[in-house]
Amino acid sequence: MGFADKVTKKSLGFWLALAASVVALVGLIVYFAYIGKGGIASAGVIIPLIVAIACGVGLFFYNGTFADLLPIAAAVMTAIALGVSLSDGVGNIADYVSDIVMYGDADLAGLNFAMVAIFAVGVLLYIVSCFMKKERTA
User: Fold this and answer.
1) What is the pTM of this model?
2) With helix as H, strand as E and coil as C, how does the chain read?
């Protein structure tokens, strides 16, 4: 089966999972920008996002027994990244909301808000794709 045949055989569930993987990749890029500006670097965000992206892309190549579990694993991994990034940035958000400098850097709060929004969209897309077929039936 060629590449074009595989692409045309995929259904909306696959494309939602792939879109969620792209969203996770954007979230990973934003997280690296956050680290570059002085934010906390955590393997608890980077590794789960890489695994989630791999699970989403893996749906294109793998259609075996455990293919239905890949979007579930990706949703869980993205949710872990969401939780860890939020807990690491809570000091930045608290300083931004209270308009004082005590726990974190209020200038990073915008990136924390962006990461939460991006990761939440990724989780929702993965969850929706879990309930849909990944390939069209003839």
Assistant:
1) 0.88
2) CCHHHHHHHECHHHHHHHHHHHHHHHHHHHHHHHHHCCCCCCHHHHHHHHHHHHHHHHHHHCCCCCCCHHHHHHHHHHHHHHHHHHHHCHHHHHHHHHCCCCCCCHHHHHHHHHHHHHHHHHHHHHHHHHCCCCECCC
pLDDT tens for each residue of 67-126:
788 899 999 999 999 999 999 899 899 989 988 888 888 889 999 999 999 999 999 999
**Look-up: residue for tokens 């293919």?**
67
Give the HSE-up count for residue 4: Cα atoms under 13 Å, Cβ half-sphere. Answer: 0
Both tokens assigned to 62: 């793998």
Cα distance between residue 53 and residue 25, in whole Å: 7
Per-residue pLDDT of 4-20, as tens digits, reads 776 777 778 888 999 99
Say which amino acid occupies 67.
A
Rounded alpha-carbon distances, angstroms, from residue 123 to 3, 43, 116: 28, 19, 10
